[in-house]
Design brief:
By secondary structure, this protein is an alpha+beta fold. The chain has 4 domains: about 130 residues, Winged helix-like DNA-binding domain superfamily/Winged helix DNA-binding domain (Arc Repressor Mutant, subunit A); about 60 residues, Winged helix-like DNA-binding domain superfamily/Winged helix DNA-binding domain (Arc Repressor Mutant, subunit A); about 60 residues, Orthogonal Bundle (Arc Repressor Mutant, subunit A), CATH 1.10.10; about 55 residues, Arc Repressor Mutant, subunit A, CATH 1.10.10. The protein has a 3-stranded antiparallel β-sheet. Strand 10 and strand 11 form a beta hairpin. The protein is elongated. The N and C termini lie far apart (about 65 Å). The relative contact order is 0.07.
């Protein structure tokens, strides 16, 4: 992810000065409460209307008129705020989430409404509001209007879907119809609520490989990333080490998921693999039987070799199963077949 350099800018003082341009105290209060300055969340039209004894529609009209008035102002604070936002956006690929701007201004989360307010007033940047698909963002005016952002994100998401699995930024960049530099592409993807990033790759938010939520998803991710069978205690250790894990995960909890999910195959004493690697469930005797169904009779050494490709067990365990299970019949010295 792109590193962010802190910037010194007194956004609170700027907002206070801008609000002074509104002559009526009621208008200033309505704007402050609608944006949520100093509050945990912005207040509704209905709440403000009840407090001032006016209709919610009247509150909406006052808010709209006040914003329109301030946007046409030649206030130095508005100009400086716009220049600051534009400079930040320009250095970060032309567009970036509001939360990143707040971070660069050393603004805590509760102060994000101040950044939103300044972005909405500035003519030099495009303010993109939060909805079901995108996070609040700021882009360069004339280059990243909301319609263009939507078109680019549609292209990006389609390319990720078509690839069908998590993809690196470099590979995705080559597949896109539009030419975007790497920083711009990364910022657009970070704005989208339909995409997720994990371990160097991007994918759809619904893919557990990039957005693992349950212990089961994380268990699958650990095995998939390692590409080899692991003991359940080792899997649990790696699950706890995932960046998305916010609580302690017990070994027993991981073991329970391994037992319940058919994607995980027990191939040895406490050792699990993914079924997609070609492993199949069953006892050692059942694996021997499957080997002999493919070809028989077979010498003991060949049976052992083939079973060890499917199970991590001791050679003596395989030989004992051959000798003691009624379903296997010796046809010659150290040679076996399935009993008719």
């Amino acid at each position: 992810m792109t590193a962010k350099t802190p910037i010194t800018y007194n956004y609170k003082s700027a907002v206070e000065q801008i609000l002074k341009e509104l002559r009526r105290d009621r208008d200033r209060q309505i704007i402050s409460r609608r944006f949520g300055f100093g509050l945990q969340r912005r207040q509704t039209l209905e709440k403000i209307g009840n407090d001032f004894g006016i209709t919610r529609e009247r509150v909406r009209q006052i808010e709209k008129a006040a914003i329109a008035k301030m946007r046409t102002s030649n206030s130095a604070e508005i100009i400086t705020g716009g220049e600051t936002m534009r400079a930040i956006a320009g250095d970060q690929g032309g567009i970036l989430p509001i939360a990143d701007i707040a971070e660069m201004l050393n603004a805590p989360e509760v102060d994000i409404p101040y950044i939103v307010f300044l972005s909405r007033l500035a003519a030099s940047v495009e303010f993109i509001d939060d909805d079901d698909d995108v996070r609040q963002a700021v882009g360069l005016a004339g280059i990243f209007p909301r319609t263009q952002v939507n078109l680019l994100l549609t292209e990006i998401i389609k390319s990720v879907k078509d690839y069908g699995k998590p993809i690196t930024l470099a590979k995705l960049k080559v597949k896109l119809p539009s030419e975007l530099d790497s920083m711009t592409l990364e910022q657009l993807m970070r704005i989208s609520k339909r995409l997720a990033y994990f371990d160097g790759k991007w994918g759809l938010i619904s893919w557990p490989e990039v957005n693992p939520k349950s212990i089961r998803d994380k268990t699958y991710l650990v095995l998939s990333r390692h590409g080899r069978p692991l003991h359940f205690s080792e899997i649990a250790k790696h699950v706890r080490g995932l960046g998305t894990t916010k609580r302690n995960v017990t070994v027993q909890a991981v073991h329970n998921e391994l037992i319940k999910d058919q994607r995980f195959i027990l191939i040895g004493r406490g050792i699990y693999a993914l079924a997609e690697w070609g492993y199949t469930p069953g006892t050692v005797a059942e694996i021997i039987a499957s080997v002999l169904r493919e070809e028989q009779p077979l010498h003991k050494d060949e049976i052992v070799r083939r079973v060890l490709m499917k199970r991590q067990v001791k050679t003596t365990t395989i030989i004992l199963n051959l000798q003691e299970k009624d379903q296997f019949q010796r046809t010659a010295k150290a040679t076996y077949k399935l009993k008719d």
